[in-house]
Amino acid sequence: MSLAGRKVLLGVTGGIAAYKSADLVRRIREQGAEVRVVMTEGAQAFVTPLTFQAVSGNDVRTDLFDRGAEAAMGHIELARWADVICVAPASADFIARLRAGMANDLLTTLCLATDAKLVIAPAMNRLMWSNPATQENCVTLEQRGVVMLGPASGSQACGETGEGRMMQPLEIVDDLSRLLGEGPLAGKQVLITAGPTLEPIDPVRYISNNSSGKMGYAVAAAAARLGAVVTLVSGPVTLDAPPHVQRVWANSAEEMLNAVMPRAAEADIFIATAAVADYRPAQQADNKIKKQNESLNIALERTEDILATVAGTYKDVFTVGFAAETDKLLEYARGKLERKQLDMVAANWVNQPGTGFDADQNALTLVTTDGEEELPVQSKAQLATELMDKVLAAYQRSAKNS
Ligand code: PMT
């Protein structure tokens, strides 16, 4: 993939990661793109405009009211010029202003005045990142179609360790290529759920299942290889996020629903691989339940069906459900396809040795309104590649591919 001939407007905001953005400019240019840089006031406290002028080969814009610069290329022209606006690093303050729709400096003004793809790579202290205000701002921005790259986890400039580091320049370039690139799913957003959910009974006990996340993570990796922008909403598992996949954690069915719904608004394809609990305890005890009686009855209530809710709400999203069955595989899978109004169901046995939950291998029967197709036993990685090829072909044939 390459960025040859593309026009990238790079926004740099105030954060120590701004020093990495100079390398990012070089990497983008190596891929054949033209880069123009806009810096906020905060960014200039970390790196000088001269640095970006040298690496980009273009004047750097810093001020909305610079008459000389406006005469050369006005800010509206600049907003129209870009194929993509990439803000890296994106500080918590910038993200808040972007969410609020403010236009109180050149960069936020450009972001409002463009119809180019908007991509942001957050970078901040881990507590600033996990603060509900920042999290809500990011969810709202994603809902509006802004693509989030990262942040990554690791040691931070402030001496702490956690989530909030800017992604590496090469990773950002890869994702930009993916967004603007040539893979068969380039520019498409694929949303995937994976893993189990945990439904708490009391502070130390829960109801769950044996899903390891292996199938869903393999599907996410395969979708990313086809060039899609992939978001993986994952239940608690111990797997690493696949390359070029944006992972969002969700523990319970309710958390998973809340993570999925705003993102589904922007998705082109939704694949529900997660083994979401169908029931949860109606009450969660505040304290550990004591061992007093010979038996304990726990009242359960239904969870909301995430897949059915997505399919019912976003009719233009191509929806693929999984069906985990121990009998009547085809009958139940077809029932799910029709009842939930899905485009495809990938059905698997979960009572056979060596496949299904937690296994490294699996087999699928794909069910659509056109018929059935067997994908035989193989590694989950190979199976996911075959599945994504079938999903791609069905999506390209469908009216939802516009
Ligand atoms: O994670 P692994 O260990 O690799 O195992 C893979 C797997 C066996 C979990 C996977 O291949 C699989 O079958 N996933 C679906 C499991 C499941 O919950 O199936 P179901 O038949 O109960 O649900 C049907 C569909 O509705 C699924 O797409 C499920 O994600 C979705 N669902 C179910 C309930 C609910 N509340 N919300 C949902 O979205």
Which secondary structure elements does this structure contain, and how are they paired or packed?
Elements: E1 7-12, H1 18-30, E2 34-39, H2 41-44, H3 49-56, H4 67-72, H5 75-81, E3 84-90, H6 92-100, H7 106-112, E4 117-122, H8 126-130, H9 132-143, E5 147-148, E6 152-155, E7 161-165, H10 169-180, E8 189-194, E9 199-202, E10 205-207, H11 214-225, E11 229-234, E12 245-249, H12 253-264, E13 269-272, E14 279-281, E15 300-302, H13 306-313, E16 318-325, H14 329-339, E17 344-349, E18 361-368, E19 371-379, H15 380-397
Parallel strand pairs: 1-2, 1-3, 3-4, 4-5, 8-11, 8-13, 11-12, 13-16, 16-17
Antiparallel strand pairs: 6-7, 9-10, 14-15, 17-18, 18-19
What is the CATH H-level superfamily of the largest domain?
Answer: CoaB-like
State the secondary-structure class.
alpha/beta
CATH fold-level label of the largest domain = Rossmann fold
Tally of domains: 2
Distance between the termini: 23 Å
The CATH architecture name of the largest domain reads: 3-Layer(aba) Sandwich
Question: Which bin fits the share of residues in helices?
Answer: 25-40%
The largest sheet has its strands arranged as 12-11-8-13-16-17-18-19
Give start-end ranges of low-pLDDT stretches. none
Overall pLDDT score? 95
Q: How would a crystallographer describe the biggest sheet? A: 8 strands, mixed
- What CATH first level of the largest domain would be assigned? Alpha Beta
**Envelope shape:** globular
